[in-house]
Write a structure and sequence with these properties.
The protein has 91 residues and is an all-alpha fold. It is built from 4 helices and no strands. The protein folds into 2 domains: 48 residues; 37 residues.
Length: 91
């Protein structure tokens, strides 16, 4: 877990340092290829898992509830952040 956070923080530092170079543009191109590829591989692995496919009815509604609660929580957090940041009197 800490390794992942360290890699994320290191990436942020490199991104800040390389803001005015071509590196962010190259990274954006790489992301456009990598994310769909990862989604395809994840879907292939999920589709090949017999236990998952056999229990899709049980897991499906739980996944939908978790997704909806995650979306609701994100919207609530965004509204709270907007209120907090909006009190700064930006205009």
């Amino acid at each position: 877990m800490f390794r992942i956070l360290f890699i994320l923080i290191a990436g942020i530092a490199v991104g800040l340092a390389a803001r005015r170079t071509r590196l962010p543009r190259a990274a954006e191109r790489g992301i456009r290829i990598t994310v769909p590829t990862l989604l395809f591989v994840f879907g292939t692995a999920a589709g090949a898992d017999d236990a998952l496919i056999d229990n899709i009815g049980r897991y499906g509604w739980q996944a939908a509830v978790i997704a909806l609660l995650g979306i609701a929580g994100s919207i609530a957090a965004a509204r709270v952040a907007k209120r907090i940041i909006g009190k700064g009197g930006g205009r």
